[in-house]
Amino acid sequence: MKLAQIYWISIAVLTVIHLEFTGQATPFHIPIYIPIILVGGLTFFINRKVVLHIQQLGDKVNLQLYSLQILILIIYISLEPSWGVFIPFLLFIGVEVFRHKISRQLFRTQHLLDSQAKKIDQMNETFLVVRKERHDFLKHISALHYMLENKQYHEAENYVDELVEGYKETNLSIQGERGTVAGVLHQNYQAGKEKGIEVIYDLETAISSLPLTDHDTVALIGNIIGNAIDASSEWQNEKSKQAHITLQTYKRSGLFILNCKNDTLPLPNEVLDHLFTKKATSTKSGDHAGLGTQIIADIVNRYGGHLDYTYKNETFTLHIKLPAFLK
């Protein structure tokens, strides 16, 4: 049995017991099956709406908190039937609130640490690519010099074309960008390339000039391109054609405009209607919750931006406008 299932069953049982004891303070005798039905229904509803993070506390801490909640039941023995019987119930609720508050804080902290570690890895990867290209530069010059000396002009031309193509990939990611942004752009470019997807960066304005914090910029761009790669990959596998992704940025009339266009399989109306909302569901196979689109929408809303999207002929286009003067 999973931790979440054990948790909901144990909390439901304790809640029923507390309600039975607190019911003694009322002039009405409430049959035991009524609290069971109410708690069962409420637990089922909350289970579907609330995302648990109690696993962040570990089994030991969760067991200690649960044991404390059981010990609270002993207080009922020393209490006369009065309104004082609500005190143990409030203590029980307090422990539960504490459990969820601390577990959420631990989850957010861990998520932030993982995000920072990922950004560092992306920056290191981009730095190593640039360092390797610089290290090999003199070797390439020597090779070209030899070809030209021996009048191997055609070979030299082909060699230069290969070099330019390779350097262009790196330049697309790092030109005018901060290290964190360059890292996420380069990593996603390589991820698309490995899947055979053509990723085009048409960046008239550097993404680093977005009026966002570094953390939010990386989260926004990473989720936008990541979602586009996932959708394009599925389209490509289904259609047996090369998929394309275009990320475009520019400034107009005090607004930072960001557009992302990608191929995608047909999207059901119920999915399109709730994209970029808290009701968003993922179109990916497997167990996903559409968190990427929710994160994008949250960031845009937080900075007073506007988000819109269109879907036509198996092409999805995301339009984002942000005030360019916030930063």
From TrEMBL:
Keywords recorded for this protein, A-Z: Kinase, Membrane, Transferase, Transmembrane, Transmembrane helix
GO MF assignments: protein histidine kinase activity
Keyword Transmembrane listed: yes
EC number of the protein: 2.7.13.3
Residue spans crossing the bilayer: 6-23, 30-46, 66-98
Record domain Sensor histidine kinase NatK-like C-terminal: where: 216-323
Pfam families, sorted: HATPase_c_5
InterPro entries: HATPase_C_sf (IPR036890), NatK-like_C (IPR032834)
Organism domain of life: Bacteria
Name recorded for this polypeptide: Sensor histidine kinase
